[in-house]
């Protein structure tokens, strides 16, 4: 492939910005919220929309059934997983691209400045649910493919695709599909590398490539009144309220400084080596700039750069997410629920195994419940995924680093990430190949929060990055 190819592709990308924004607007307009059953048809519609777009760039596609899930005692069909392939040249490297098409819930009343499912451009930023997580990056691959076609060049690699619409709800059914069906069928047989773009730069200005993720354990803490026939006598304190018990338990999980109170939770965390300690010092991260970006009064750990990074990457953390069954409508309410479910999660790190962490949590919760001495019923369940790391010195990572430097004129930081993408490990195990996380979005994109956005610059330069990445991987020895 001649050296003039990439400059031509970059020019083509710059000439088609409006069409890229329009396609993202179409994708954001589909409210593919996987956690809410009323949006299940929208999730299916999103998968079919993406299927058509892949076919338009010449890919062969297939929708794979992954079965059912149980919601409120009912069997509900899961959205199909979209599988695709483009190119079968045995002389070329083959990359498997993973992305997800579902999003977190969003309502304007949550605090959005505009309707979350109507893409809005303000101050060089594209606001909308899913813009950065993960519809923008997924579309980036389509645009990169189209750019090669637009300048009359063949793709320098073969591509395979795995796009799902349940990532935000635990990727139900996907592990079984990858390991028990696609792997035996030979889907990964000719795959040389795996790439995921579902993460973010550490900050807002410096690009990075990610070689590690924390795992995650989701917990569901249920408390139910001993007698469900609640009556007016509760106002006299004759019934031990489920909500009071749940609040008590959740208050025992983490202190005001973010330290997890669960016994021995830090015991198996990998020890800090001198080499790792030096890595944190060299990372380009400005705590004060980060504080201003997120409009925080102060940062944890006194704003110390190394401590902030370590607690984001290498130490576990606990987050409280919500209470199901509680009265949440505005205005004065005196509803007393008979059953409530508290939801929290723990981000786990290398050397911590999910089974070990779950046992520590269960033992601790049961101990605190015994101390509470409530007559109510309590149960706890969990759903977990392991932490993941790769070797950032691998040729695959170095190819991505060259592509990043070409686009952003600076060497990227090799970073770990505070978030979790459990399918990363599954793809690593199913393919047996090196897995790379190549971010498009920035650290202040507010994924999962109000006013989620993708900087227009990151979107457009990210398309160029993907094109350059394909070019650089195409040069790696087969």
From TrEMBL:
Pfam families: M20_dimer, Peptidase_M20. Keywords: Hydrolase, Manganese, Metal-binding, Metalloprotease, Protease. Substrate binds at residues 198, 231, 334, 347, 420, 448. Mn(2+) 2 binds at residues 100, 133, 198. It comes from the Eukaryota. GO terms for molecular function: metal ion binding; metallodipeptidase activity. Binds 2 manganese ions per subunit. The active site is at 102, 167 (proton acceptor). One of its GO terms (biological process) is proteolysis. CDD domains: M20_dipept_like_CNDP. Its cofactor is Mn(2+). The record marks 231 as: Important for catalytic activity. Mn(2+) 1 binds at residues 133, 168, 448. Residues 212-369 form the Peptidase M20 dimerisation domain. Transmembrane segments: none annotated. PANTHER family: BETA-ALA-HIS DIPEPTIDASE (PTHR43270), CARNOSINE DIPEPTIDASE 2, ISOFORM A (PTHR43270:SF4). Belongs to the peptidase M20A family. This is Peptidase M20 dimerisation domain-containing protein. It comes from Parnassius mnemosyne.
């Amino acid at each position: 492939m001649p050296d003039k190819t990439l400059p031509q592709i970059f020019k083509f990308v710059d000439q088609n910005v409006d069409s890229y924004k329009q396609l993202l607007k179409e994708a954001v307009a589909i409210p593919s919220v996987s956690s809410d059953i009323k949006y299940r048809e929208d999730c299916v519609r999103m998968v079919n929309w993406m299927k058509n777009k892949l076919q338009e760039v010449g890919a062969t596609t297939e929708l794979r059934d992954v079965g059912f899930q149980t919601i409120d005692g009912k069997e509900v069909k899961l959205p199909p997983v979209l599988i695709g392939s483009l190119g079968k040249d045995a002389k070329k490297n083959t990359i498997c691209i993973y992305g997800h098409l579902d999003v977190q819930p969003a309502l304007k009343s949550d605090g959005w400045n505009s309707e979350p499912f109507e893409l809005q451009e303000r101050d060089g930023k594209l606001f909308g649910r899913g813009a950065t997580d993960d519809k923008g990056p997924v579309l980036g691959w389509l645009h990169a493919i189209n750019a090669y076609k637009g300048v009359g060049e063949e793709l320098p690699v073969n591509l395979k695709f795995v796009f799902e619409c349940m990532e935000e709800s635990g990727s139900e059914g996907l592990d079984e599909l990858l390991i028990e069906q696609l792997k035996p069928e030979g889907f990964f047989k000719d795959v040389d590398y795996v790439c995921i773009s579902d993460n973010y730069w550490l900050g807002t200005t410096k690009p990075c490539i990610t070689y590690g993720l924390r795992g995650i354990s989701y917990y569901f803490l249920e408390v139910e009144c001993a007698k469900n026939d609640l009556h007016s006598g509760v106002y006299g304190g004759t019934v031990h309220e489920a909500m009071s018990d749940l609040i008590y338990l959740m208050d025992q999980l983490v202190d005001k400084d973010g330290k997890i109170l669960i016994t021995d939770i830090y015991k198996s965390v990998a020890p800090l080596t001198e080499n790792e300690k030096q890595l944190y010092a060299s990372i380009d991260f400005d705590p004060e700039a980060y504080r201003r970006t997120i409009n925080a009064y102060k940062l944890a750990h006194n704003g110390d750069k190394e401590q902030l990074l370590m607690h984001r990457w290498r130490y576990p953390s606990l987050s409280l997410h919500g209470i199901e069954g509680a009265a949440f409508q505005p205005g004065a309410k005196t509803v007393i629920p008979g059953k409530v479910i508290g939801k929290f999660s723990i981000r786990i790190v290398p050397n911590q195994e999910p089974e070990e962490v779950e046992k520590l949590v269960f033992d601790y919760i049961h101990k605190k419940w015994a101390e509470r001495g409530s007559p109510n019923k309590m149960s706890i369940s969990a759903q977990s995924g392991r932490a993941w790391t790769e070797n950032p010195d691998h040729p695959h990572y170095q190819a991505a680093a060259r592509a990043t430097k070409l686009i952003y004129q600076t060497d990227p930081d090799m970073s770990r990430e505070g978030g979790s993408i459990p399918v990363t490990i599954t793809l690593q195990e199913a393919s047996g190949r090196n897995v790379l996380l190549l971010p498009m979005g920035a650290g202040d994109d507010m994924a999962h929060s109000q006013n989620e956005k993708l900087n227009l610059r990151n979107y457009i330069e990210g398309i160029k990055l993907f094109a350059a990445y394909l070019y650089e991987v195409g040069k790696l020895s087969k």
